[in-house]
Write a structure and sequence with these properties.
Radius of gyration of chain B: 14 Å
Radius of gyration of chain A: 13 Å
Structural class of chain B: mainly beta
Shape of chain B: globular
Oligomer: heterodimer
Number of strands of chain A: 11
Strand content of chain A: over 45%
Largest sheet of chain B: 6 strands, mixed
Number of helices of chain A: 0
Order of helices and strands of chain B: EEEEEEEEEEEE
Distance between the termini of chain B: 41 Å
Number of strands of chain B: 12
Strand content of chain B: over 45%
Distance between the termini of chain A: 31 Å
Chain lengths: ~120, ~120
C-alpha cells in the first residue's frame, strides 16, 4: 500500500459525459501528479500540482482539468468524454521538497470506461 | 527531450531462471534520476528503485539487482532465481531535476511472464 488513495476504482460512463476522479496523496506529500495509461499511448504525464498550485503540464487535453485543494487532495475532471478517453488514470504523490527526482508513489488507479 | 526505451516488449522464462530487463534512456540533463516500477496484474504501480545520475554503483536487493552504466545510458534490471510472483509489467522511468519538469517519462514497459 503506497498510502495514495484514489476513488472511484472503476467508472463506466457514456460519451459526452463528465466525470471527476479523486486522489488523496500520502500524508505530508505536497506534490500530486496525474498520469494516463492507455494501450496506444502508454503511461503519459498529464499535470502536476504543488501545494495547491499548478506546477507542470503535460499532454493534457483541454477537455480535462484538475485542481488541488487546501487539504492537498486533488481532483481530475474529464468532460465531453470520448471513447478514446477510456484508460487507467493514476495519481501519484511526492514530498515536493526539491524540483524533480523525488520518488513518486502511485495510487491504485481509476479505470475509466467510456461507452 | 527525454526518452526511455525498453526494447523488450515481452519476455517469458521458466521459474528459477535469471532474467534481465533492459532500459536505455536519453536526456540532455546532467542531473537526473532513474526509476523502476512494477505493475502486477492487479494494476497498481509499485516503486522498486530510484537511482541518481551521479551514483553508478550497482545495487542489489534480495533477488533484484540493477546495473547503471552512464557510458551506455542504460539502467538494466536483473531478477535472479525468478518466481511466479515476479510476473508483471516492468517500467523504467526517467525524471529531470528542474522546476516545472518533474514528471516521470516512462518506457513502454516489458511484460515478464514466469512459467511455473
Amino acid at each position: 500500500d503506497s498510502g495514495v488513495t484514489q476513488t472511484p476504482k472503476h467508472l463506466i460512463t457514456a460519451t459526452g459525459q463528465r466525470v471527476t476522479l479523486r486522489c488523496s496523496p500520502r500524508s505530508g506529500d505536497l506534490s500530486v501528479y496525474w498520469y494516463q495509461q492507455s494501450l496506444d499511448q502508454g503511461l503519459q504525464f498529464l499535470i502536476q500540482y504543488y501545494n495547491g498550485e499548478e506546477r507542470a503540464k503535460g499532454n493534457i487535453l483541454e477537455r480535462f482539468s484538475a485542481q488541488q485543494f487546501p487539504d492537498l487532495h486533488s481532483e481530475l475532471n474529464l468532460s465531453s468524454l470520448e471513447l478514446g478517453d477510456s484508460a487507467l488514470y493514476f495519481c501519484a504523490s511526492s514530498v515536493g521538497l526539491v524540483a524533480g527526482g523525488e520518488t513518486q508513489y502511485f495510487g491504485p488507479g481509476t479505470r475509466l470506461l467510456v461507452l | 527531450a527525454q526518452k526511455v526505451t525498453q526494447a523488450q516488449t515481452e519476455i517469458s522464462v521458466v521459474e528459477k531462471e535469471d532474467v534481465t530487463l533492459d532500459c536505455v534512456y536519453e536526456t540532455r540533463d546532467t542531473t537526473y534520476y532513474l526509476f523502476w516500477y512494477k505493475q502486477p496484474p492487479s494494476g497498481e504501480l509499485v516503486f522498486l528503485i530510484r537511482r541518481n545520475s551521479f551514483d553508478e554503483q550497482n545495487e542489489i536487493s534480495g533477488r533484484y539487482s540493477w546495473n547503471f552504466q552512464k557510458s551506455t545510458s542504460s539502467f538494466n534490471f536483473t531478477i535472479t532465481a525468478s518466481q511466479v510472483v515476479d510476473s508483471a509489467v516492468y517500467f523504467c522511468a526517467l525524471s529531470a531535476v528542474n522546476f516545472g519538469n518533474e514528471k516521470l517519462t516512462f518506457g513502454t514497459g516489458t511484460r515478464l511472464t514466469i512459467i511455473p
